[in-house]
Design goal:
The chain folds into two domains: 31 residues, no CATH class; 107 residues, Immunoglobulin-like (Sandwich), CATH 2.60.40. Helices cover 17% and strands 40% of the residues. The strands form two sheets. A five-stranded mixed β-sheet has the order 2-8-7-4-5, with no helix packed on it. Strands 1-3-6 form a three-stranded antiparallel β-sheet, with no helix packed on it.
């Protein structure tokens, strides 16, 4: 009993030192990434985008280090609503593909688009989805 308490105290101290969420240890031993949160989207994120003279639009996000990532699930919607009827492109990308390049021919002038990204981990867990919208102002 005393050994269990000491072990739990050491684990709790390590979680605090390394700023790890306590619930992720309880659910799946020590994990460096909280799988509930989605990736941090960098570009495009609420900008007006010009595609003039470009063949592709690159999508970038902050990649989490130290996680056992399997792939990314990318979706692109026309408009602000991320619903099935607005879905115009979806694909799973291997973990080492970065950034994701989407052909410019999918986009129209003066249209709003929303993209989402989800991370899928080796153990089968998936992160939450992150969303960002942008407008194509020139093509």
């Amino acid at each position: 009993m005393i050994k269990s308490c000491i072990r739990l105290s050491i684990i709790a101290a390590l979680l605090l030192i390394f700023n790890l969420p306590v619930n992720s240890y309880a659910a799946n031993k020590i994990r460096i990434f909280d799988s509930d949160s989605g990736p941090y989207l960098i570009y495009p994120a609420t900008e007006n985008i010009t595609l003039k003279g470009k063949d592709f639009l690159e999508f970038r996000w902050q990649r989490a280090g130290g996680v056992k990532l399997d792939h990314y699930e990318f979706k692109l919607y026309k408009g602000y609503e991320a619903i099935a009827s607005n879905l115009i492109f979806k694909q799973k990308f291997p973990r080492d593909v970065y950034p994701i390049s989407i052909p410019a021919k999918l986009f129209e002038n003066n249209q709003i688009y929303t993209w989402s990204l989800r991370q899928a981990f080796m153990n089968g867990d998936k992160s939450g989805r992150s969303f960002s919208s942008f407008k194509i102002i020139e093509k």
